Amino acid sequence: MVATIIIIVIAVVLVGGLIALYNNLVRSRNKVDNSWKQIDVQLKRRHDLIPNLVEVVKDYMSYEQEVLTNVTKARSEAMQAQGPAETAKAENMLSGALKSLFAVAENYPDLKANQNVSQLQEELTSTENKIAFARQLYNDVVMAFNNKVQTFPSNVIAGAFGFKAREYFEAPEEEKEPVKVDLR
């Protein structure tokens, strides 16, 4: 009788432990998904600001259509990107196009003095900071999730239920500089 009770207690503890590990993995996976969506929110805001910026500078930069076309094309490609690696690559191309736009805008004093451009510049700078923070949070959450998926004993449950390590958001080395948005 005592042996049966001990076996039942051990079984209950094991099943409870397995349930706790599984639930912990599910919560971690949901945090990863949520933090990725936070990046999406900030990227959408960035994408929404760019047409306004292009529209405002278009009148001043009538001879710089190629730069504006490149920004618009890069924005379109960034909006269609899927997954961390493809999104990072597309967003970095967009950052490069914006750098070119701001570099060319330095040659237009009237543009730098425009209040709308100044306001868009501030919003874009704020959005860039939020994107950087969201990327950092995402990578932190991915690291915690990947640790659970790859360490014992949760890796046993992760393997049994198909939890897989997630991809970090990585920027190529040459694109790690922030976008310069100073038009003053």
Q: How would you sum up this structure, described in words?
A:
The protein is mainly α and 184 residues long. It has helices at 2-58, 65-80, 83-105, 109-113, 115-150, 154-161. α1 runs antiparallel to α2 and α1 (2-58) crosses α6. The radius of gyration is 24 Å and the shape is rod-shaped. The termini are far apart.
In short:
The protein has 184 residues and is an all-alpha fold. 79% of the residues lie in helices and 0% in strands.
Range of strand content: under 5%
In the predicted model, the low-confidence regions spanning at least 5 consecutive residues are none
Radius of gyration, CA atoms, in whole angstroms: 24 Å
Strand elements, count: 0
- The helicity comes to over 70%
The major sheet is characterized as: none
Multimeric state: single chain
Order of helices and strands: HHHHHH
**Mean pLDDT across all amino acids:** 87
Q: What sort of overall outline do the alpha carbons produce when their principal axes are compared?
A: rod-shaped
The total of helices stands at 6
Structural class: mainly alpha
* Gap from first CA to last CA: 84 Å
